[in-house]
């Protein structure tokens, strides 16, 4: 199991980076209002600060590189568990396909991030717009999976306990129970 303080930091990290970069850009803009314009981007205002833009681009590229590493590791873990438990089919092959599809999307975002940093492609909003669609893409790819639909709090599954009454599990309990079952079976080598 992952320790709780690590999960809290992992959940807080995007918000901390958002506040840090937004605050930095706000301070830079307040010093020089002439650097803010709509001439460089079609859909939104931008700041003509090469250093700030470069730092944000490099930060985005590093985050995307780490994300692709986690995706590769997740696909490897899912694939090895699927091979161990092939007969019982506890691992959804669709999840492996979804992770690979998101990996391709992340690689595309990474490519646009590098292009905007290395070339004159910097004037185009395409890379920014691609990055802005990431939350929607995550919902489309992962939010439509069977596991995601089962775990949603609107319809928690029931657990029948042989020695007692039926009770409903919280979504987190369902995920933890499934993970413990898969881990236990992989450890014992069943399948």
What is the first-to-last residue Cα distance? 23 Å
Work out the helix count: 7
The total tally of domains equals 2
Q: What is the number of beta strands? A: 4
Weakly predicted, low-confidence segments: 184-191
Q: Roughly how many Å is the radius of gyration?
A: 22 Å
Tell me the major beta sheet.
2 strands, antiparallel
Q: What gross morphology would you assign? A: elongated
Helical residue percent band: 55-70%
Bin the strand percentage: under 5%
Structural class: mainly alpha
**Side-by-side strand order of the widest sheet:** 1-2
Mean pLDDT: 71
Order of helices and strands: HEEHHHHHEEH
Keywords: Membrane, Transmembrane, Transmembrane helix
Transmembrane segments: 12-34, 55-79, 99-122
Task: Please outline the helices and strands.
Blueprint: H1 4-31, E1 36-37, E2 46-47, H2 50-84, H3 93-118, H4 126-132, H5 134-142, H6 146-151, E3 158-159, E4 167-168, H7 171-188
Antiparallel strand pairs: 1-2, 3-4
Helix pairs in contact: 2-3, 3-4, 3-5
Structure characterization notes:
With 191 residues, the chain is mainly alpha-helical. The chain has 2 domains: 4-144, no CATH class; 153-191, no CATH class. Helices cover 68% and strands 4% of the residues. The protein has 7 helices and 4 strands. The chain has helices spanning 4-31, 50-84, 93-118, 126-132, 134-142, 146-151, 171-188; strands at 36-37, 46-47, 158-159, 167-168. The strands form 2 sheets. Strands 1-2 form a two-stranded antiparallel sheet. A two-stranded antiparallel sheet has the order 3-4. Strand 3 (158-159) and strand 4 (167-168) form a beta hairpin. Helix 2 runs antiparallel to helix 3 (93-118), helix 3 (93-118) runs antiparallel to helix 4 and helix 3 packs antiparallel against helix 5. The chain starts with a helix and ends with a helix. The model is unreliable at 184-191 (pLDDT under 50).
